[in-house]
Amino acid sequence: MNQEHPIPTPSEPAPNSLQRTILRWIREILETILPALLIVLVVNLFLAQATRVEGQSMEPNLHNNQRLIIEKVSYHFHPPRRGDIVVIKLPDRHSDPLIKRVVGLPGETIEIRDGHVYINGELLQEPYLHQLTYGNLAPHVIAPGHVFVLGDNRGASNDSRSFGEVKISYIVGRAWFRYWPLDEIGFVH
After folding, report:
1. Is 49-187 CATH 2.10.109.10?
2. Is the pLDDT reported for residue 9 higher than 60?
3. What pLDDT is stored for residue 11 in this prediction?
């Protein structure tokens, strides 16, 4: 008589304690850390990000090594406004982003003469400024979709006087909140 013997099939070994610990650790990463990283990425890309002031071009209002939060949402609902302090990234420059103040808006005629800025022939009131504006600029109409930016420290600022108007699409965001150093914490104006 021929008895058929079943062929034994290999069974998966039961995971040992180390394997269970590793699997639990991987699961914890996927359930906790990964969503947190995604939230940080979304906030940083679309809502707000931290930045550092480099240089003296915005003194006395912003200082070298101050830490700021820039918000990226408001310009999706309205265009930049005169007086806004913005962070810009110029694609043709390989430098860090620049922090400047918006002084001229699309369609306006800007002029710099006798140490002052004029918009549409009217003297621009700049209460945040503590010095004259160096250089001269003949009356110039700002192109649609562009702004004219200047540093508050006009004697030490690389701004639209040297690189021209800035496309609004080059604005990363608006400086919103100062968080370092702690004795200067507060909203940016």
Report:
1. yes
2. no
3. 57
